[in-house]
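Journal club prep — side note

Before the paper discussion, L.F. wants everyone to see what a predicted structure for a comparable chain looks like in token form. Sequence:
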Amino acid sequence: MKRKQLVGLGLAAVLAVAFVGLPLRAADEAIDYDGINRIKAQGLTPANSQVMEISSWLTDVYGPRLTGSPNIQKAGEWAVSKMKEWGLENVAMEPWPADATGGNNGFPRGWVNEKFYLAAVTPQEFPIPGTPTAWTPGTNGLVRGEVMLVTGTTQEELQPYAGKLRGKWILTSDAPDVAAYWNAPARRYTPDELQLMESPAHPPELGTPQPAGRGAFGAGRGGRGAAGGFNRNDFFHAEGILGILSTAPRGHGIYTIGGGSRTADPATVNTAIAIPAEQYGRIARMLAKKVPVTLEADIKNTYIPNPPMFNVVGEIRGTDKADELVMLGAHFDSWHASTGATDNGAGSAAMLEAMRILKQSGVKLRRTVRIGLWTGEEQGLLGSAEYVGAHFGTAATTGRGRGGQPAGPPTPARLLPDHARFAGYFNIDNGTGAIRGVYLQGNQAVAPIFRIWMEPFHSIGMTTLTIANTGGTDHQSFDRVNLPGFQFIQDEVEYNAITHHTNLDSYERLQPEDMRRNATIAAAFAFLTANRDEKLPRKPEAALPGGGRGGN
């Protein structure tokens, strides 16, 4: 390492220590190296590790795992059987709390795609890969129709198409420009990037030139116009279209997938299909040349009324502090264009393997260690929020909705007895990338503890703490009620570039060595939390967040 880098890292360390207020007693934080070495021997040795075998079952056999689908039910049953085989206790597919509204906690219907065929038949034949948007209907058999490009969004812009769209496929935007991969899509954090994460951000010095402001680049127009609540999709449905094709400017055969409305009557919803930019652009460019394009499709999507909603749980009971709880977790659900490997079969497999490591290694656990595999994360952290509310309590609400608008009367916090007995929660949900540290979620008091705990894992790259948070995953459900919940910092690898919510999120995108490291580190942090004399410190009430975004 260059001298300049050493100086920078030294300064970052000083700043970080000053920022978190390192207490003198942190130097006495105990590490049971015998236990850590037993965990490492079980988790890091390829001959002992089972994390990739677990990953294959969750992806190859039971993927994708869309919440409310038959596959996630089968995956949950498999996970329960494996944990019982390993000797875990209180293993179950724990139902979400009953929904007094009768809406099945926002899932009045599950959904699964059982058949997909889409192809151009004129002016020449070519296959079109794609995936239906979740909770949209199929075609009810083989259908054929011409394609029309309709980019308007307002009632005035669409009125000229009235009576002309029946039996047509609709493209709602022009062919996108697709950039080349000028840089390798796979990457790891550099030492400089990790150093920047450690260092607290400074406001600009007086006199520092500021960049010019930018507009909302890429802010497209949605289906609902501003005037009178006009809905473009309702217009299309009333016109009798066959379906809507969409894409993203990613190219290279990659497309992203998501979900439509889980609560809308399927009879009022358009068939919607995501396809790669290459096929979408080819069709759009032919239409621009006044060359008619005809597509045929046979898509079977099946709805499941009131599917069972659950989280998968299991635990290793502690000894003298067994009534106190440490949790490991990851979201179990995925989107459905591929098998959900990096989002989030990787996190689920790593946490299952961490529990197996703790059990197989035979290390002593003073506190109970429990795993939670959450469903409904992709729809807004629903499963973990339901679990936290049922077991630990709910946060106070202000009664204000988005934009300060009223959303109901304010409610006080409701804390259950197990809230006081909770020691800590650790989450994995950033793909296959190796763990490099921890997002502290603004919890300054845990920094000196975690810094010492990371020391046995410096050799495999875990060196970094940042006071910052990463959003959109299940640790936030715990943090909202002031329970110490943390997401690990992970290398990017190909997560946002290739796999996140795409048709390429398959087993082949997993990195075996990273997976072994992640399971081992998760097991070690659970072990250290379980055996510490005190529970992990919590943030002061003044530091509590106002909420977070859902679904990642």
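L.F.'s comment for the group: The first strand starts at residue 89 and ends at 95. Keep this in mind when we get to the figures.
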